[in-house]
Structures are given as C-alpha cells and as structure tokens.
Amino acid sequence: MTKHVQGTQSLSRSIGLLEHIGARSEPPRLQDLLAECEFTRPTLYRLLAGLEAEGLIVQTPDRRYLPGLRLVSLARRALARNDIRDLAHTPLENLRDQTGETVHLAIPSGAGLVYIDKIESHETVRMSSTIGTPVPFHSSGVGKAYLAALPGAECASLLKSLKLEAITSFTTTDPKVLASQIADCRVQGFIFDDQENEAGIVCFGAAILDENNGPAAAVSVSVPLFRLRDDRNSYSKPLLNCVKIISMHLGNAG
Asked: Per DSSP, which regions of 78-200 are E strands?
C-alpha cells in the first residue's frame, strides 16, 4: 500500500500515471488514459503536460505516450547502484569466459529494450554496442527472447504494435515468420539471431524470469560470423545456465 504524505497528492498522481504508461504493453493514447485512469480530463491534461515538460514522457507522431529519455537516464543511474545489474554481473562474466564472446544484458524500455550491461570479449574483434543502446524487439536476440517469455495474449498484442523495419538485409519483417521464431524459442529456451540487428554478427538470446515467471530482462551472446563455432550448444548451454542462475537470484523457482 502506498503511503501518502500530506501535500503530495499531485506528485502521487503523476507517479501513478507514469507507472501506468510504463507498465502498458502498448503505448497509450489520451483516450486510453481517460478510460483507464480515474482522472478528469483537465487533471489528466495537467499531469501529462507536467510529465512531458520534465522529459519524463514523450509523445510519438501518432500521439501515443512513451517513457521519456530523462526517465531512462534516471533509471540507468539507479541500475548502476543496485538491482538486476548487480545480481547478473558475475554470471554474465562467467558466460563471457565460457563462450569467449561479448555478453549483453537488456531490459524493456519504451517500444523495445535497452542495454544496461555489457561484458566485452577478450578477442580483438568486438561489438560496437554501448550501455544505453536501444534495441528493437523484432530484430535482436534479446528482444525476441523477451517476447517469447511473455504470456501468449500479451505477446500477441505487443507484436501487433511493432513496426517490423528492416535493420539489415537479414531482419525478419514478416509477422508470421517472427511469430514462428518466437514459438520455437518457447520450446528450446533460446533464440538464434542471424545478423538481423547487425550484419556480420549473430546472437544467442534468452530471457531472465522473475518470481512470477514473467520476463524481467534478457541476455545475449554476440558472435562475429567468422568466429561462429559449428557446435552451437557451446553458446546456448552456457547461456541457458546463466539466465537460470540470474532468474533464481530474482526469486524464480525454475
């Protein structure tokens, strides 16, 4: 139960609205918020204007609301101090050592995910990605793994909202093909991304599950194509063990 402090009603309402926008599987329009939140139209206008002025939300061209860059920045600072990054860091380092390749940790942010940790390969040729890089759901190992871990109805709803833009010539842009890939991921526990987000780079991705068995984050092992070993189990098995360990740290019973 949230404890309300006298004189902070407007702040509490703004935070509640911000949480509602962030928790929604599809970015809401004004009409959605009016129907779903117990605010009058003038109050909702005022709260949205205040959040937008502070950079905590932004409007898309089709007038939907998304968490803003300032909110992402604040979240990144918090993540630098605690929570999943700290819990995951040692297992991610072990995964890097076992596979010899660069490892990423990503969490949902807006209409995709964002990298919040990266453990570099010791090899000379490395990934150019950085912490804070946004990653689409449909073209990345972490994104597809996250989608596959969502409940079926929630995943289907989110898939309908995605713009399947071609990031490379290998990117999946057919909704039926993407749905098939996600179904395969649910069976085998991981996804193989064949140069869909960056030409010359393949990824193995798997989701981290929380105590409710829902996706909290996703992990990928990124491999330059010329260095890819024939035995793909040498990547997928350590990856699956890694996400299992981190999931258990988050309270998942396995």
From this structure: 102-109, 112-119, 134-136, 191-194
